[in-house]
Design goal:
Strand content: 35-45%
Radius of gyration: 21 Å
Distance between the termini: 27 Å
Order of helices and strands: EEEEEEEHEEEEEEEEEEEEEEEHEEEEH
Structural class: mainly beta
């Protein structure tokens, strides 16, 4: 798990008896990861302040996903496919990987845990990858699933989507939180598979009306509230006065969330994830969610590093690796505004 003393990584019981891993950094920051969903549910700084939002009505009971923290959307983001919304990774029980293959990232003075998800029989039934052939020919069934359909001289059949999803959750000496995902195609039938992905991060904010997101100016986005029509961001920052649900495209590697009231800025650094989802449900949708408090929308904001517009395709043996690193730093002010140089140009 970690190169530090064992007390820095503890496996214990959480809500409703679910297993969770607690990471403790020597300077006082902590993180908690539930094995159900491979789900980070807490990230606290050295002062014990919670930096992630988890709803007071969150249901920590399978098969319901945990509302808040950092749900993992795989192998499908939202309803962009045939699976339930956001896929099944957040609804499965992961295992602690005690002997993972080497990660190239530096883990010196860092506390981390490695988790592993492999498909269940149920996953293999609900997530076949379809292949289409436009001529009639003899098909020899080998490792292919046993359902096929001849329709309009086309043959449709499915291959098993076997994969390994390895997740490393790391807590750094400055209290930064890093999630590194490695997804490998382990199919033995020679077939690729395709997926979309997001770190569905819920940030804790003081008052959503006092928050702005910087780094997405002038970019194109798909508006999920308008059938994913494409628009271009016109403002110098994103602010919130009503429901927002957008997929920003071709985004930079750094995005900042500036909380005016707390004088705190979250900085999101990401590699390999070109898109970014910005979401706040506002009052009407908040009241419609059974696992979300009516007024909790005021104290949360989702900014999600993602790969959505261009789905990822992996051939057998190929691996896709991405990461997200979160840090919380003091905000700097200039004439009543947050100084973007302090936020986006700092390393």
């Amino acid at each position: 798990m970690s190169t530090t003393e064992n007390k820095s990584v503890e496996i214990t019981k959480g809500i409703n008896g679910l297993d969770k891993v607690i990471l403790r950094e020597i300077n006082g920051s902590t993180a908690e990861v539930y094995l159900y969903g491979g789900h980070v549910t807490s990230w606290k700084n050295e002062h014990g302040e919670e930096l992630l939002f988890v709803s007071s009505k969150a249901i920590f009971k399978p098969p319901k996903a945990i509302r808040g923290g950092i749900p993992l959307c795989f192998p499908q983001f939202s309803n962009l496919g045939t699976l339930e919304a956001h896929g099944f990774a957040r609804n499965r029980v992961w295992t602690v990987d005690i002997d993972p293959p080497p990660f190239p990232s530096n883990t010196t003075n860092r506390v981390f845990v490695d988790l592993l998800l492999k498909p269940t029989e149920e996953d293999l039934k609900i997530w076949p990858h379809r292949h289409i052939f436009y001529s009639i020919f003899f098909l020899i069934l080998d490792t292919l699933c046993f359902i096929f359909l001849i329709n309009n001289f086309s043959i449709f059949f499915c291959s098993i989507c076997s994969f390994e999803y390895r997740l490393r959750v790391t807590l750094g000496p400055a209290g930064d939180l890093m999630l590194t995902s490695r997804i490998r195609n382990t199919n033995t039938d020679g077939k690729p598979f395709t997926f979309t992905f997001a770190y569905h991060t819920y940030f804790s904010v003081s008052d959503i009306s006092e928050v702005r997101v910087e780094g997405l100016e002038t970019l194109d986005f798909l508006d999920n509230m308008k059938n994913r029509e494409r628009y271009t961001e016109q403002g110098d920052a994103i602010t919130f006065e009503s429901e927002v649900d957008r997929i920003y495209l071709s985004t930079p590697t750094k995005i900042a969330i500036l909380d005016h009231e707390k004088k705190r800025t979250f900085v999101i650094r990401k590699d390999g994830l070109p898109d970014a989802v910005v979401w706040n449900p506002w009052d009407k949708k908040a009241k419609a969610m059974t696992d979300f408090g009516d007024d909790e929308y005021k104290h949360m904001l989702c900014v999600e590093a993602a790969a959505i517009e261009k789905p990822i395709t992996l051939k057998p043996g190929e691996e896709w690796k991405v990461r997200q690193e979160l840090s919380a730093v003091p905000s700097s002010y200039c004439s009543g505004q947050l100084d973007p140089n302090k936020v986006l140009q700092s390393s």
